[in-house]
Amino acid sequence: MEVLLFLKNKLQRYLQIDLMYFIKGGFWVSMENSISTLISFALGLILINFLSQDDYGIYRFIFSITGILQIFLFNGMNSAVVQAVASGEEGALKKVVYFRLRWGSLFTAAAFVTSLYFLYHQNYIVVISLIILGVFQPINSAFGTYQSYLQGKKEFRLFTLSSLITQVILTLGIIFTLLTIKNIISLVLVQALIYLIVNFLFFWKTIKHFRPTNKYENNAISYGNKLTFLELFGILAQNLDKIVLFQFWGPAILANYAIAQFFPGYIYSLLKSTSGLLMPKISSQSISEISQSFYKRFFQSVFIGGVISSLYIMIAPFLFFIFFKKYSDMILYSQILSIDLIFALANSFVGSIFLVKKFIKSIYASQIISSLIRIILFITMGMIGGIMGMILASIISRFLGTILNIVLWELERRSFLFSNNK
Questions:
Q1: Can you tell me the distance from the alpha carbon of 387 to that of 380, in angstroms, rounded to the nearest whole number?
Q2: CA neighbours within 13 Å on the CB side: how many for 201?
Q3: 398-415 per-residue burial string, b: 16 or more CB within 10 A, e: under 16
Q4: Regions in the chain scoring below 70 on pLDDT
Q5: pTM, whole model, 2 decimals?
Q6: E strand or H helix at 417, and its extent?
Q7: Are 344 and 266 in contact (CB under 8 A)?
Q8: What angle do CA 398, 399, 403 make, to 5 degrees?
């Protein structure tokens, strides 16, 4: 027992973290991420195989519209609540929930106004879906703030269990709807109702169990507003490709694009999530030490990304044969799109340095400029070239984003050297 305690203390001093907190919290958070990814993956497979090509395209389009409109849901408040509660300001939970319920009317108004455009074009499925989501999503997002409270309280087990229960119920609800009604509007309504009921019950249970204090220093909301604004360009970049394809090429083309994205998208997300493993090591290094091995690590990351991309190109036909047999004409598009994977680990590596060393200006510059490049390329190349244009836009924007990160690193490194040589 004493040997284990000795090893724990040595490792804790070396990594400069609370090891028991890291193990306990890391286990539950990792489990939530892993199982959530599996559930999301399975749900995607179910939707693609149960819905027609056009219906799947319309379904993705609806949630891409609300994905952009979510700027009016003030999702930046979630991170603000985590930080406030971790600092003892538990009153931030109720304050932020009331704020999001009140100002969520902006989302409702935006959804209703957007629905008028589709009403004019007689796309009634999109109209009704936007009205449903316009009513429910502000309420669902507000009550969903309980998860940020649990994270701030370091109740990672409860956070993980509540998140997984929500996803399991949602998945079962969607499967039941697909097997019985098989209607897009019903799918949207079922999802909205499940989130409303489950989020409200967990919010009510959190308030009843923890009885948060009213301590609040009135900075969580202002900080959350700033975070929400910073998310604007990223939100546009994540959703604009689907909207451009739907508007200029139709729902079937959007469905094909989403299917081509399916496997590379999950692999890219998995590779990006490795940044958390890099942070303890980077934290223990000075900027000079990082600088000495930066390009070695960077090109190692690019090489590994290239190997993963090559492996996917080889196995893609088998994956499509197993899961998407009727979409075999999308194999080539998916293989080309996997070139994105080459840059995933490299960008994750540089991003981890920026976060750990608190290069705030570089973080903002990387997020905003990369997103703007992506938005411009999506609009121009997607309108002209359809799926292939959008895929090329994605690859080019990832490459340019990688170059940008190298430039920002060099600026930070030279600034550090200049300040040390004064």
A1: 12
A2: 10
A3: bebbbebbeebbeebbee
A4: 1-32, 218, 273-284, 421-422
A5: 0.85
A6: helix 360-420
A7: no
A8: 115
